[in-house]
Amino acid sequence: MNSSFWYMGGYARYVWPCVAFACAVLVWNFWSAQRYLAAAKRRAARGLAMAASEAR
Amino acid sequence: MWTWFYKLASPPYVYGVAAALMPWFLGFAAIAIGYGLIGGLVFAPPDYQQGDAFRIIYVHVPSAWMSEFVYTTMAVAGAIALIWRIKVGFAVAGASAPIGASFTLLALVTGSMWGKPMWGTYWAWDPRLTSELILLFLYVGVMSLRSAFEDPARGDRAAALLAIVGAVNIPIIHYSVVWWNSLHQAATVAKLGKPSIEGSMLWPLLSMFVGFMLFHGAVLCLRLQGEVLNRERQSAWVREAINS
Question: Based on the structure, what is the number of domains in chain A?
Answer without folding.
Answer: 1
